[in-house]
Amino acid sequence: MLQDKAEKNPEIIGFACSYCTFKASEMAGSLRMKYPDGVKLVQVPCSSRVDPAFVIKAIFEGADGVFVAGCHPGDCHFIKGNYFTRRKIAALKEMFDAFSMNDKLRLFWVSAAEARRFVEKVTGMYNEIKERKNVRKEN
Amino acid sequence: MKTGIFICHCGHNIKHTVDVKKLSNFFKKYPGVTVSNDYPFVCSEPGQDMISESIEKQGLDRVIIASCTPSLHGELFKDLLKKSDLNPFLLRRVSIREHCSWVGDDIEINTEKARRLILAGLYSAAHYVPLEEKRVEVTKSALIIGGGVSGLSAADFLSKMGMQVYLVEKEAELGGHVKNLKNIWPARKDGKSIIDEMIEELAGRENVEIFASTTISGFEGFFGNYEVTLDTLEGEKKLTAGGVIIAIGFSPFDPRIKPELQYGKDKRIITTLEFEHNADTLQLPEKPRVAILHCVGSRDEQIGKPYCSRVCCINALRVGEAIKDKYKDSYVESFYMDVRAHPRGGEEYFEDTQEKGVLFTRANVAEINPSLTGIVIRGEDTLFGEIFEREFDLVVLSIGMSPPVDNKLTASLLKITLDKDKFFMEAHIKLRPFDTAVKGIFIAGSCSGPKDVEESINHGRASAVKLFGFLNLGYAYVDPFISYVDPKRCSGCRMCEQACVAKAIKYDEEKRVVHVEEAACMGCGLCNATCPSSAISLKGYIDCMIDDEISAFMEAI
């Protein structure tokens, strides 16, 4: 039964910047907003800490999706770390494209106040991946 | 390795949707885990005693506390480890409340998620090493942005306690909005006299420097030594401040955003602020008919202002009272949604105003049509469920507070966050209402949400007390999460040097390797992710920690 559940429900690993997205996720929790249990966060000091190797590692280990989330452009606590993230993830996406895995990786900006946006983003990603996954299973 | 896992019930908050007993039993048998316990409140004194006792008796060298989010009680548990002679950086907090028990309802699913979260913490903590906190000297000076009541009250306290105070005001004169108010309720005092009193207090002090007509053009550095560039009338000026208090106040709501109110098209439609300024010169007939509209620019989802501005009900009552006092035979009608006369004595004041003859009609005003004989208000009486149409000689809009105009600019300059209503966001709405997420930067007054004069003064003083607590120590500890280079692996490609925003990475021409200047490193970890030879690591977030965390999440260990 549990095995069945695990197969159908996607696992998503998210890298969350301590200053914004992680704060937003804390707030989402405090506000008792609901989002799928498959979403698990790795706290990083800045989204620029995310080595593309981590993303690949997560996919290798069986994650169905990975997201990197940081502060809105211009709001980075470390001045311009998120610009580096944007470029890194863009390059990585191009590589993922070659394997038709573009939908597995996402980058978005969530500020510390945007708990609702955080929940919408992760739930949206989760549902899309779940849909695609289950379609693939049926085939 | 001897790891201790302590799982908090948090009363019912965690226990309700996570099977804590099952979790602690699972980890009891896990390799490398010496102690695994669950406890109703780990943060309570008996809970803390339990942890320190385990550390001493079992000789634990890693502590994992699965409870609320790491930013809560962070210092508490760090101190606990210090007291037990264990390096505080061997502690791992796992958030199973905000990130698990509160976001899902199914106990089976939540328990599984919590298990994986703790597992990730366990594997990540295995790579922890003892770290030393860096001590930095703190400049005993404070920068206060905004010279309104809250800024002035903060400046008063800090300068009295002997701190150097730099007070920056954008306008030529101190006092903000309060200096233009007359007859402030409930003190019945002139705003100008309150401000003058406060300025007089400051004027004699040597350690207060006031910069009027000044804006902030540059802001850099970290807690204890912020480097600030001021744009004064005489040109640029640089100064160093230990901490910052932001007290830039609010902007009055502009009723032009709601075109149905016809504000600005007819001079018989005015705001409460304009009424305040021109109360004596208003041209009104002997028996004036006056309408007062509550909640203009507050509690209005359509224009994105769902919050209550807190001060406008009292302002509306003051207008009604002022007209009734001046014109005995006037007809004054207040159109309200709810009267929220919240400050002390407000309810009584509301009743007094009703006794004086101000009529209160619970209504939604739909439109205002100026005509030659008067101004016609059309709306719905929400108690009777009837449409009404009445004519008035004067319409006063009780406007609310909007976020300050400079909010976005200030937020991006100081790297702090705005909340959903675009006021400045506090670090925690209940536990840390004066702090921002950035250490040493505080907020005061109505820039963090609508407040009346009394609350703003209190808020300013409270922020000043908190900042004083930080500054007076003279030193601070900063997190030791900085990068270091393994010279054996460094190939000298200098990619990190180009990436580093803080310019903390320096190249050694002789040895052909780079090194990190610890004082300048901000700890973002960009260099760690950039280095192609994995020679740089960010302490506290090294590669193998994150790798193992990912593996544990996916149960691929």
SSE inventory with pairings:
The complex is a heterodimer of chains A (139) and B (557).
Chain A: H1 2-8, E1 12-17, H2 21-30, E2 39-44, H3 52-60, E3 65-70, H4 81-98, E4 105-109, H5 115-138
Parallel strand pairs in A: 1-2, 1-3, 3-4
Chain B: E1 3-8, H1 20-28, E2 33-39, H2 45-58, E3 62-67, H3 74-83, E4 91-95, H4 97-101, H5 107-125, E5 134-137, E6 141-145, H6 149-160, E7 164-168, H7 191-203, E8 208-211, E9 215-222, E10 225-232, E11 235-241, E12 243-246, E13 251-252, E14 269-271, H8 272-278, E15 289-296, H9 312-326, E16 331-336, H10 346-355, E17 359-370, E18 375-381, E19 386-392, E20 394-399, E21 401-402, H11 407-414, E22 441-443, H12 453-472, E23 475-478, E24 483-485, H13 495-499, E25 505-508, E26 513-516, H14 526-530, E27 536-538, H15 543-553
Parallel strand pairs in B: 1-2, 1-3, 3-4, 6-7, 6-12, 7-8, 12-22, 14-20, 15-16, 15-20, 16-17
Antiparallel strand pairs in B: 5-23, 9-10, 10-11, 13-21, 17-18, 18-19, 24-27, 25-26
Helix pairs in contact in B: 2-3, 5-15, 6-7, 6-12, 9-10
